[in-house]
Structures are given as structure tokens and as C-alpha cells.
Amino acid sequence: MLLGAFTFWDVFWLLILASVWLTIAAFVLIVLIDNFRRTDHSGWAKAGWTLLVIAFPLLGAIVYQIVRPSSVFAEEEWDSDRMTAARSEALEQRMRGPGPR
Fold first, then answer.
1. Domain count, the chain
2. What does the pLDDT read at residue 85?
3. By CB neighbour count within 10 A (0-12 exposed, 13-18 middle, 19+ buried), where does 31 fall?
4. Does one domain contain both 62 and 76?
5. Which end of the chain is more exposed for a tag (fewer CB within 10 A), N or C?
6. Is 16 within the bounds of a domain?
């Protein structure tokens, strides 16, 4: 009886540990994605951060979050504004229809 070997608290502890590990894995994945999307890093900087995060996942991800400049937030905001303007322009073109302009 394999199920008989597990108590309620064993299952509870397993779920807690699984949740923590999934959270850490998601955090590390988000840091890696952010690292590769950055335009202000050179290729060597991206490679260095990637190696650090892969070698020491939690420590590397926390250090990356602390060290990265705040200009990233301004870049994301600019990108959001640019995308909103592009969507508005595309919507206006659709509303005009396919006639001569």
C-alpha cells in the first residue's frame, strides 16, 4: 500500500515544497526572459547574466533584480505607448474601409 505510507502532513509538506520550487523556477525564468529582451545590454553582458543565473539560480536572479537599472520601466512604458498608438492607427484604418484615401 503505497498510499498508506503518506500521512496528511507528508502530502501537505510536499505541496508546500512544490509550490516554493515552482515559484523560484518561474522567477528565474522571468529574469532570463527579461535579460534577453533588454536592449541596453551587450551580448557579453547577456551571456554573463545568463551564466550567473544558471549557475546560482536564486542568488543570480535576486542580484539581477537589484542591479538592473530603473530605465527598464521607462522602456516598457514607452513600448506600451507605442503599441497603443499603433493599435489606434490600425483601428482607424479599418474603420475608414478600403476606399480611396
1. 2
2. 81
3. buried
4. no
5. N
6. yes
Does the model's pTM come out above 0.70?
no
CA–CA gap between residue 52 and residue 59 (Å, rounded)? 9
Per-residue pLDDT of 52-73, as tens digits, reads 999 999 999 999 999 987 665 5
Question: CA-to-CA distance for 76 and 38, rounded, in angstroms?
Answer: 10
Please check whether residues 60 and 89 belong to one and the same domain.
no
> Structural domain of residue 60, as residue ranges?
8-68
d(CA 87, CA 93): 10
Q: Which of 27, 52, 41 is nearest to 75 (CA)?
A: 41
Contact 31, 62 (CB under 8 A): no
d(CA 39, CA 98): 37
Residue 24 sits in the same domain as residue 63: yes
Q: Do 43 and 77 fall within a single domain?
A: no
